Amino acid sequence: MAKGTGEGIGRRTDRDLKVRVKTAKGRKVGSTLWLQRQLNDPYVAKARAEGYRSRAAYKILELDERYKLFKRGQHIVDLGAAPGGWSQVAAARIGSTDENPLIVGIDYLEMDHIPGVILLQKDFNDEDAPAALVAAMGGHKADLVLSDMAAPTTGHRATDHIRIIQLVELAADFAIRVLNPGGTFVAKVFQGGTEHELLGMLKQHFNTTLHAKPKASRADSAETYLLARGFKGNGPE
Ligand SMILES: C[S@@+](CC[C@H](N)C(=O)[O-])C[C@H]1O[C@@H](n2cnc3c(N)ncnc32)[C@H](O)[C@@H]1O
Predict the structure, then answer these.
(1) What string of DSSP letters covers 115-170?
(2) pLDDT tens digits, residue range 34-51?
(3) Is 147 in the same domain as 33?
(4) Minimal-distance CA residue to ligand 1 atom 21
């Protein structure tokens, strides 16, 4: 997974002491700091020990503990699924199996198979991505749409800002199209006034909306999670 997302589990030596990384020739200071943070992150170590593909697994576990997201037999869509921590947690919680897969995940990165999860390697921005997801859902609507997607940053603030908003709006539009009445939408958003319009739109379609920042989400990161619960439905089909 891309280094900048900070979620993948990198290789680390098994040491309890704080690991310091020397700036190697050719490695930028930012990369060295990222590597050092990764090596010293307790969630990275925990994920490795407990068999999760990403430290992000602990964010959804925490959100589930607080807001009871998962129920057995639900149908779920996981947007931006790689490397797979959220899908792993979801599959275990709802009892999804390869014989009866209840989860469809999408990412433009290649992923190893996760039992109980149908994975599409595709850019969610592609025009045909929603249709591909709907087809993979095999005629079922979703009870829960998760999005941990983050648009890759370009370094150009205004461009990054627009791309972040567009992606989460696209995810929200998709959720509104595919959710069952009563369903839930969870999406990563970034603090800083990015989602006023989005929030207004979600309030029209869901009974409750709230923001939550799990402990596993780094305090120095602007990311937070938006939960919209109690989808009101799309009226008669
Ligand atoms: C923070 S990671 C997700 C971690 C995941 N929840 C887990 O537990 O392993 C964000 C993912 O979103 C994906 N992503 C970002 N933009 C995307 C897009 N337009 N289409 C598909 N995937 C996208 C990235 O490739 C990345 O793998």
Answers:
(1) TTEEEEES-TTSTTHHHHHHHHTTTPPEEEEEE---PPP-S-HHHHHHHHHHHHHH
(2) 777 777 788 999 999 999
(3) no
(4) 107
Give me the domain span that covers residue 34: 3-50
Q: How far, in Å, is the centroid of ligand 1 from the Cα of 124? A: 10
pTM of the model: 0.87
Q: Counting atoms of ligand 1 from 1, which one is nearest the CA of 53? A: 9
69: Cβ contacts below 8 Å, ≥ 6 apart: 60, 63, 144, 184, 186
The answer to whether 59 is a known catalytic residue is no
Note whether 63 and 149 are same-domain residues.
yes
| Ligand 1 pocket residue status of 114, Cβ below 6 Å | no
Residues contacting 110, CB < 8 A, separation 6+:
82, 121
Task: Specify whether the CB–CB gap between 136 and 118 falls below 8 A.
Answer: yes
Q: Is the CB of 125 under 6 A from ligand 1?
A: yes
